[in-house]
Amino acid sequence: MRKFKVRNLSIGIAAWLAIATIGGSALAGEVNLMTWEGYADESFIKDFEMASGCKVSATYVGSNDDFAPKLSAGGGVYDLISPAIDTSPVLIRAGLVDPIDLSKVKRYNEIYDKFRSAPALKKDGKTYGVPFSWGSIPFMYRTDKIKTPPKSLKELWSAKYKGKIALWDDKSAIYVASRVLGNMDIYNLSDAQLEAAKQKLIEQKPLIRKYWSTAGELVDLYSNGEVWISNTWGGYQSALLAEQKIPVKEFIPEEGAEGWVDSWMIVKGTPNQECVYKFINMATLVQKRV
Fold it and tell me: By CB atoms within 10 Å of each CB, which of 12, 21, 82, 170 scores lowest?
């Protein structure tokens, strides 16, 4: 979800290299990621590969709903994944991830305590995720098309924007609909509240231009003029659109917006333990320098 800021990553990589244990110049192994766009950017992955001897490959997801099915399919394809914290308990209960050996995460105790102690990353006294990135899911609109700044989620149900609305193709759509209905405890919805959210989304469907699944897809929809208002990954698509000089602005609606915390989780049974922990250590160090 998301944008991994890279302006000072060279500093972070250099610092990581200074404290990392690198065994020779030959490749030490590999680490295969299932992650979000931006979390395996070449601007820092190349430096990591050179420093660690670990070859990185990445498969990108467009939704938190992608993690469990891909892992359940088996095949030993992935070593590390980066789901949001509301998805982590499902993966832990399903036995798809292994506990973290915290003695191998050098700066774990420097991560915000609120994130480290999150119940969603714990089971039976063990920790299953290393938080490394966090933010919000705000909303965004084209300022040249919508002159009056929107303040409410109700705008995404407005007929005046029919065919110009996009919504992330993710379970977070349920949270959006629930907030519109006044159900703010979005992680503890009753069956009746879930059904009401479903019906609200069905009501909205004729107004939707596209249910977007990747950052690039939403950027294209805005730059082509196909979409004027949507939810977004905070700071990411807006930055990409700014590079194209497409005028957009993010906003938090009066009903609120959910936050997110992404964590690195180790896929059950991965043989690439050395490179897995090298990558986690790099990511948690770099996070403090960006």
Answer: 21
Query: What is the rounded CA–CA span in Å between residue 111 and residue 115?
Result: 7
Sheet strand arrangement including 229-231: 208-212, 165-168, 229-231, 139-142, 248-251
Tens of pLDDT, residues 203-255? 999 999 999 998 999 999 999 999 999 999 998 899 999 999 999 999 999 99
* DSSP of 242-266: HHTT--EEEE--TT---EEEEEEEE
Radius of gyration of the chain, Cα coordinates, nearest whole angstrom? 20
138-257 folds as: D-Maltodextrin-Binding Protein; domain 2 (3.40.190)
Which range, 6-20, 41-55, 188-202, is most confident? 188-202
Q: Tell me how crowded residue 38 is: count the other CB atoms within 10 A of its CB.
A: 17
Beta bridge partners of 208: 165
